[in-house]
Design goal:
Largest sheet: 4 strands, antiparallel
Strand order of the largest sheet: 1-2-3-4
Helix content: 10-25%
Distance between the termini: 67 Å
Strand content: 25-35%
CATH class: Alpha Beta
Number of helices: 3
Number of strands: 4
Bound molecules: zinc ion
CATH architecture: Roll
Shape: globular
Length: about 150
């Protein structure tokens, strides 16, 4: 009772996320590999392990868009083409990534391209960004260069 207002009892209390042996169910990585975020793009975003391939870097940048990590987007951009800042639109929710094709971008390559479709929701609508991106290395690590023309 609060000031005469009856508070109905909660029929099915929602268990606290930490209720099960202290383990939180892993968040799936937004990039769609099926791996938990911490074992997938989360390693690149946190700086634990740089992306090993151009495609892995591309996936980690999609995840950075999905997670709103503007710092990572700048860090993973080549210094020669990087904008001064990245403005993320809070109304745009990046929900799904499709990798359509790739060239180079492997462990022994210095360059690569990845063509992808990135799907987003915005307000009541949805959209898709289709891009063929070029990746190169900076200090040995994969970075985004820009769109292939
Ligand atoms: Zn991922």
């Amino acid at each position: 009772m609060l000031n005469g207002v009856r508070v109905p009892p909660v029929a099915h209390p929602v268990p606290h996320p930490l209720a099960h042996n202290g383990a939180v169910p892993p968040i799936p990585c937004p990039c769609g590999t099926g791996l938990p975020l911490v074992d997938c793009c989360g390693r690149a975003l946190s700086g634990t392990a740089p992306a090993a391939t151009a495609e892995a870097l591309m996936r980690s940048r999609f995840t950075a868009f999905a997670e709103g990590d503007a710092d990572y987007l700048l860090r993973s951009w080549h210094p020669d083409t990087r904008p001064r800042r990245v403005e993320l639109d809070p109304d745009q929710r990046w929900v799904r990534l499709e990798v359509l094709g790739r060239t180079g971008g492997g462990l022994l390559h210095a360059e690569g391209t990845v063509e992808f479709r990135a799907h987003y929701l915005e307000g009541a609508g949805q959209g898709v960004l289709h891009e063929n991106s070029r990746f190169t290395r900076s200090d040995g690590n994969w970075v985004y260069w820009g769109t292939v023309r």
